[in-house]
Amino acid sequence: MAKKGKRYTEIKEHVDRLELYTVDEAVSLVKKTSGAKFDETVDLASRLGINAQHADQNIRGTVTLPHGTGKSVRVVVFAEGDPARQAEEAGADFVGTDELVDKIVDGWLDFDATIATPDLMRSIMPKLGRVLGPRGLMPNAKAGTVTMDVAATIQSIKAGQIEYRVERVSGIVHVPIGKTSFEEESIKGNLNVVMGALIAARPSSVKGRYLRSVAISATMGVGIRIDPQQFV
């Protein structure tokens, strides 16, 4: 078993892994225990009481973080004609069709989000499905990234729109909610918006406890558990 570093051990001294913290306490701790030489991402992990093998419980959607992600997002748009022009004017980082598809198939993945117009999905899906699908980067109608309104979608993504989706096996939703350099109120604001979206997305077929566990952590930190009852 790999030995934990000194810094990790020191962080654990401040965090009780069995304690269920309030949102205020957890956010304060995640900032207090961050000390990496880079601006760490704050991640939110929520385990839901669902069976993602059932189509109606395979939760997926988008939410816009009011304080952004703290990250510069590189957007690829698969479009041609007028939508391609609109994408370029809206600030898309890469716009194209066949040549862009081939570049990705050859191993280029230097981007964070993709958008496609509906008419191109049939041609790009066979080539890109296996490449982008497992990485969560394939354009998807449910997530709003298969659209003719490419300009508005680009602007939303760059302003802080993120996609959430449940992992089929674990039932966990992982999303970034900011950076450790953010003010505490900004992290809390982003966290509460995501939790609100997850609660609103609860399938009607789910019985029993829906929010099983909630935790936040910095990139190099430990998980800090939050009492799920605060969001119910």
TrEMBL record:
It comes from the Eukaryota. It comes from Geodia barretti. GO terms for cellular component: large ribosomal subunit. PROSITE patterns: RIBOSOMAL_L1 (PS01199). This is Ribosomal protein. Keywords: Ribonucleoprotein, Ribosomal protein, RNA-binding, rRNA-binding. One of its GO terms (biological process) is translation. It holds the Pfam family Ribosomal_L1. Belongs to the universal ribosomal protein uL1 family. GO terms for molecular function: rRNA binding; structural constituent of ribosome.
